[in-house]
Design a protein that fits this description.
It is a single chain. This protein is an alpha+beta fold. Helix content is 26%, strand content 34%. The protein has helices at 7-10, 14-24, 77-86, 92-100, and strands spanning 26-33, 37-43, 50-58, 67-75, 104-109, 116-120. The protein has a six-stranded antiparallel beta sheet, sandwiched between helices. The longest helix has 11 residues, at 14-24. The protein is globular. The termini are far apart.
Length: 130
């Protein structure tokens, strides 16, 4: 068990948690919806834990294997309210700061490198993809 979530959405095995989070979390708000960048707020159906789901893709126009990043940042109820109110004008720096100070689930697949799925606690820089 972690500070945020339950064994299903925040369990120790990152691959299992990612499979659960990508298929079972229920979307409550769509803040940004672009072809290479998206931010949504989601909630775990098992424990009610809220998350910001952040997808970013960087298209390099060569080879077709573009860098893709997907992060699930756990949120408090107050943070959900604040982010939902911001809508498409969501503060990316503030969102990145939340993901930098607590354990988050991360799928990182840089161009030409191996895909890495892990629980991370390092700096999260949220920026629009292209």
């Amino acid at each position: 068990m972690t500070e945020f979530g339950c064994a299903r959405c925040s369990g120790e095995d990152a691959l299992t948690a990612l499979a659960f989070c990508t298929t079972r979390l229920r979307e409550t708000h769509r803040l940004v919806e672009q072809s290479h960048f998206g931010i949504s707020l989601r909630v775990c159906p098992e424990c009610g834990q809220a998350f910001a789901a952040i997808f970013t893709e960087f298209v390099d126009w060569t080879g077709g294997e573009d860098a893709q990043y997907f992060d699930f940042v756990p949120l408090t109820a107050a943070e959900v309210t604040s982010l939902a109110a911001q809508g498409s004008r969501v503060d990316l720096v503030r969102l990145g700061a939340l993901g930098s100070v607590r354990r988050r689930l991360s799928s990182s697949w840089p161009t030409g490198k191996e895909k890495r799925i892990a629980w991370r606690t390092d700096t999260l820089s949220v920026r629009e993809g292209y």
